[in-house]
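Hi V.,

You were right to ask for the full record rather than a summary. Here it is.
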Amino acid sequence: MRREVIPELLDDDLGTPEEIASSLIDLRHINDWFGGTRTTVSLVEQVAAGGSSRELSLLEAGAGRGDTPLRAGKILGRRGLRVQVTLLDRMWTHLPRNGAISVAGDALALPFRDRSFDIVSCSLFAHHLEAEELRGFVCEGLRVCRKAVVINDLVRSRVHLGLVYAGLPLFRSRLTWHDAPVSVRRAYTCQEMREMLREVDGARVTISRHFLYRMGVVIWKDSY
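Predicted structure:
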């Protein structure tokens, strides 16, 4: 299945405030019901297993409301791993107003010093980027992290696209009805991701498949 780049409506807030809020709620359900949250939990546990600390700081880029990392953090907390989450999104209107640490900024030019966080993470963000942008994000993430960059995203396939169309009646927003299938069409395969990241100097990469066409990527910091 050939990759197609089609603009997503939520990216540029192309809807009413009510439609945007509804789409962000739909996105939370997609991650909770179809493997997104558990993929982030698995990836963070994988990074934590490489060290002795039971406390980690995590920057979530392209975070939106931050439901996935915040909910993953609660699950990990019950397992004895404390995760301090900071959310970053270029659209300040997408960030939550619930007391979470939130920053409006560019994921391709992270507004943080070197080694500011243990992990730099993103969920359903990588497929928005073209190859050079994705490598740029990873390089920025490696600069800002102490341990690893983790990517949680979709795997492109015809079967996945068919499942998305079948599941659309579960969601409320017209933005979701447009953006959900578009996201699958824009997503990468595991092989494409591996080839793109091969060009990042010194990157040690592990890629795993997760529930319902989710891809987990860990790019390890050289010194970790």
